[in-house]
Write a structure and sequence with these properties.
Order of helices and strands: HEHHHEEHHHH
Strand content: 5-15%
Protein name: Alanyl-tRNA synthetase
Helix content: 55-70%
InterPro entries: HscB_C_sf, Put_trans_reg, WH-like_DNA-bd_sf, WH_DNA-bd_sf
Distance between the termini: 28 Å
Keywords: Chaperone
Structural class: mainly alpha
Number of helices: 8
Oligomer: single chain
Number of strands: 3
């Protein structure tokens, strides 16, 4: 993890693997690899940072295990271990960084929402509250930028209004989700 306790790209992939196995149960190697590649590509697009984590490495580290067979070569049935469940819990509780253009935050938020229901209700509330807080911080940053660039020519002000509206909508969505828990 980064110093601020937020996920690095390889840890986001770990969260995707472990959450998928915990949520859906054991899966065949090829099925799991294909589903993960599809999900990650659709959220952030092709990324060399995300392609580096191998299911074999997670097996070696004891986070997943082959329930039959040995691995990729015989399309083994893979499942999460107890250590993998503990790692999943740790990764789910990690911080989310302030929004950035690299796509990693979008992936981390998508993974948290995809697997949020696997946490206890109080932990779900904590995670949603943290995500709402990120939206509030983003709105403050964008508002400051709007004030600083008032009266400038071009299309930046329109684009900024659009960005602010999206952040306000995300905040409303998270607050609504929080009220439903």
């Amino acid at each position: 993890m980064y110093r601020d306790n937020s996920l690095m790209p390889k840890e986001a992939v770990r969260l995707a693997v472990l959450g998928t196995l915990i949520q859906n149960g054991p899966q065949r190697y090829a099925e799991l690899a294909g589903a993960l590649r599809h999900f990650l590509d659709r959220i952030v697009g092709p990324s060399l940072d995300l392609m580096g984590t191998s299911l074999e490495m997670l097996r070696y580290e004891g986070l997943i295990e082959a329930l039959d067979g040995t691995g990729m070569e015989d399309n083994a049935l893979l499942g999460a271990t107890e250590a993998g469940r503990t790692e999943f819990d740790t990764l789910m509780r990690a911080n989310v960084r302030a929004p950035s253009a690299d796509g990693l935050n979008k992936l981390v938020i998508a993974l948290k929402l995809r697997f949020l229901h696997l946490l206890d209700v109080e932990s779900q509330r904590d995670q949603i509250d943290h995500l709402a807080s990120l939206c509030e911080t983003e709105l403050a940053r964008l508002g400051d930028l709007k004030r600083a660039s008032a009266g400038t020519d071009g299309h930046f002000a329109d684009w900024l209004e659009h960005d602010i509206a999206q952040a306000e909508e995300r905040l409303s969505w998270f607050n609504n989700l929080l009220s439903r828990l």
